[in-house]
Amino acid sequence: MARKERHVTPNKTGGWDSKRENAERASKHFETKKEAMDWSRQKSKSEGSELIPHKMNGRIQNPDSHGNDPNPPKDKN
User: Fold this and answer.
1) Residue 23: Cβ within 10 Å count
2) Of 40, 45, 57, 77, which has fewest CB within 10 angstroms of its CB?
3) CB atoms < 10 A from the CB of 70, how many?
4) What residue spans carry the Basic and acidic residues bias annotation (predicted)?
């Protein structure tokens, strides 16, 4: 089963977007990254998807899994 992903990415014209994987358009646009992360985290939990935030330069930063993680951590703490 392929994992679902939701990305928080910087918008070229300013602000931040929340997008599902392979989407051309954003699900929602935000002025700040914090607003985008808060909304996207809730959506990701309800979808059971992986939340993948990006930095301003586009690089991935600290992904967070809210679904069936194919590689869960071995420790239970």
Assistant:
1) 13
2) 77
3) 10
4) 17-48
